[in-house]
Amino acid sequence: MHPFTYARAADTREALDAGRRGGRYIAGGTTLVDLMRETVERPETLVDISVLPLREITVTKSGGLRIGALVSMAEAAAHRGVRALYPVISQALELSASAQLRNMATIGGNIMQRTRCTYFRDVTADCNKREPGSGCAAREGFNRSHAILGTSDQCVATHPSDLAVALAALDATVHLRGPDGERTLPFADFLLKPGSTPNREQDLRRGELITDVEIPAHPRPLKSGYLKVRDRQSYEFALTSAAVALHIRGGVIREAKVAAGGVGTVPWKLPAVERALIGERPSGRLWAEAAGHAADGARPLTHNGFKAELLKRTVERQLSTVGGTI
């Protein structure tokens, strides 16, 4: 680990001032500290923001949710409002990591976490995300766990967050505060596909803080859930995953929200699957036909071609679990 300076922000203004000067924010620290140990990240200054008042979970009057950036994963997963309104969020959080990590890691840190690509974390390997212009060792290396959607010639690393898949499905927004004031971004615009700049992963300006994440109200009744497929049952990242939320009224699907994880460079929204569901009656045949669109546009690599079919099966299974049949 390289030497660094540590400072603890007493309030938001102090944190923003330090961030504007180039300080890196830290709260739970479960990702950044790991990367510092591996010398992947080498910040000169860490700014501890753990005392900032960003720990509230609020159910809005319209029936949506606002979750503070410093709420722990464990707190969010156990919150009565989260579990009642959006089980998909609780399930995604509970499947994300060990209990110890969920107690430490924050909501803001979870969506900011960097890829688990082994080449990114190996400082001897070529990685455009870590060192722009150096190349992408994963493209010609062992790439079984890598992305098949949203890739570029520069990067094929998957985004690791389970929570982010649920937030993408539910059309969440991210609230930010920085030296220039406050702004709000659709979650789909907050996380960036690699394109030609894979080192730029979020649409964050210098010194900006995530203050909270907002999930809008959706029509009720709403059934939702998260399915994660992985090589082992615990403490493992997804090969594929599916977040599904369905509003079914009068025996007909009125609204469908579907996103996938483990397969994209960002959490991957599945609009073709959603369109195939809306206006239809739940049935096994519908789930299979809609899920057939889950891998549209996929570009498999040498070792991960199996993910396209696995993704379709994952989405079909979760549609059936959430939607049932009539």
UniProtKB/TrEMBL annotation:
One Pfam entry for this protein is CO_deh_flav_C
| EC number(s) recorded for this UniProt protein | 1.17.1.4
Domain of life, per lineage: Bacteria
Recorded hits in SUPFAM superfamilies, A to Z, give: CO dehydrogenase flavoprotein C-terminal domain-like (SSF55447), FAD-binding/transporter-associated domain-like (SSF56176)
Q: What top-level class of enzyme does the UniProt entry assign?
A: oxidoreductase
* Family matches, as InterPro entries: CO_DH_flav_C, CO_DH_flav_C_dom_sf, Diverse_Substr_Oxidored, FAD-bd_PCMH, FAD-bd_PCMH-like_sf, FAD-bd_PCMH_sub1, FAD-bd_PCMH_sub2, Mopterin_DH_FAD-bd
Q: Which UniProt keywords apply?
A: Oxidoreductase
Which Gene Ontology terms cover its molecular function? FAD binding; xanthine dehydrogenase activity
Residue ranges occupied by any FAD-binding PCMH-type domain in the UniProt entry: 1-220
* Keyword Oxidoreductase belongs to the record: yes
From the Swiss-Prot or TrEMBL record, give the protein name: Xanthine dehydrogenase YagS FAD-binding subunit
Look up and give the organism this protein is from: Streptomyces violarus
